[in-house]
Amino acid sequence: MSQYRRIAGVRVHGAESAPYAARLVEEALGRSPEGVPVRFAVDPALPEGGYRVEVPGTGEIRLVGDPFAGLVYAARELADLATPAGVPVGVRTGSPGLPLRTLWTWDHSTNWDLRQLGQQEIGALNPYAKSAEAFGADYRRLVDFCSRERIGGIVVYGLLRDAHGGVEAARELCEYANQRGVRIVAGIGVNAYGGIYFDGRHRYNLATWLRQRPDLAAELPKKVGFDIDEFGDLHFPASEYMMAACPSQPDNLAWHRDAVDWLLDTLPVGGINFETGDYGSCACARCTARTGGERTSWSYEAMRSVYPTLLDTARRTGPAGVPLRHLVEVYWDNIFDLDAQKPLADLPDDVAYQYCVNRGFWYDNRERLTADHVDRLPHTTNVLRTHAGSQWNRQRHSWVPEMYADMATRSGTAGLRGLTIFAEPSAYHPTNEISYLAYARFTWNPDLAWADFWRDDVAPRFGGPAEAQAFADGAAVLDDHAATAEALDAVRSDALAMVAATAADVQRRWLWLAERAARHAHSAA
Hints:
single chain, alpha/beta, Chitobiase, domain 2, 8-stranded parallel β-barrel, 39% helix, DUF4838 domain-containing protein
């Protein structure tokens, strides 16, 4: 039987290392000048997110963590260990199995404060339709979720936009996230997607730059957009958001280099997600000659021409003195095409290269994701990113925890360093909630058993293991486009019976399913 140590308040030492973590401990255990001493200590040798909680039978409790996130995780672990009998004595350690755990978002379709007007559920080049205050309200909730569930970072495309406060709003978000051990990773377009300052009359907004220098614009195809098997043919509307710059023009590279410098001088971001654009590559004579006629939605040669300079510019330390974390998009459904990736071989090796996959591609090819294949990729740090579970695979509110668990487990076994998923809808939606929890648990521990996850995280949220399976089955009916109104009404009826039999958050989850089934049945009738 575990020995428990009673704690009637704590005295914190070393709070300057992690003031937010210290506050978590004081709120959970009480603050008292005569309380048990709790000392915070930084250990730079630990991996990011690594921590140790030491609870002796007497004397000082020690919380040790890496400089950025580990002390926050240690504080949460200590708070979670507390019971009416006290805190169990012993040493507990933790560190992430997949170090690069990142959620991917666009600002305009990230809806975590569901009281806000102007919510959007899809898009990549959208105006911001909410109030300026909504940006912080949405992302603070998402940051809190990441901090609580030990998810290391959030990519934000549209981080800098006049409509929700520009530099000041972005700075406030970064500072809020840094305190909680969550990196805000600025999503930037290189020669595309608005540049560094996505939307506004700013010198580092791409449309502003190209209006001043129209001679530097790219020659795009008539159709601007792309095709995804699980989504279909996507066209972007003509607007200044889709303006693109020619990657063969040295002045464009110099402008982007200066913009990256400005970004890192101005905001305490945790890193950058670089993307050269996937809605059309430049077809001017210079680009055509340089690439040998390469014509896809994106250009590997364009990546090779710009990334060395920009990555060298971005090579800095960031929050808490730890290196910035940079992700480089190498686009989708091509992780097994080694010939296509040859132009990337000479790119710097100290950043993470992010390969996106769609759900159909994943299920058709996942057996090919082996350690031998990952060893043959051009770089040593590689990350899987997926459209699965998002609007781009028609799964924005789908139940996909099994898929995320499978991706995390296979990624860990193959030697990938991380997994990135979309997380724009709030965890209020129980399908998203369970999918996010599966992502969080299995990226932290890729060896986790599904049965343990189901027992510890899923079953209690629905009233028991059988009830959880019934919810999953009902959610599957919602995703079946051939489901009849009668089948959907049956889901609604069963869910309402569970609403009557449960309370609090369990009841809320079943009420969500009942309402969603009623909505689908209304449209299917």
